[in-house]
Design a protein that fits this description.
The protein has 125 residues and is mainly β. Helices cover 10% and strands 39% of the residues.
Amino acid sequence: MTAMRMTGNHSSSASTATPHFMGSTFTVPEDYRALAPQLANLQSEDHTFDKLIQPHRYSAGTVVATFADLTHDVFILIKGRVNLVWRNNLLGRQLVMSTLEPGAILSQQQLPRSSSGSQFVEAVE
């Protein structure tokens, strides 16, 4: 599984779809799935951009991000699939809430906050 990880402070609204990264703005296109191939082939000479957006590869079963990670980072899934998982801390059971495919944007909004469990994103393939 390959994802672009955008690090920094961000805020987004469902209506604007415009995350903010350390003072700069990154606009997500209306058809956000078209963004994945563009980012996969991106060749940047901007060192600030390179620091903010980095490709990462994850093996199946690896935790890609926790709820805490997604408070300050955003991921765009380039290749493979991920599961959004909720784990019941009392019973130790896990529930796959959703499986996302290339083009998906992972942020804190995808993982609901729960006091009785933990949430994380796990690579599937």
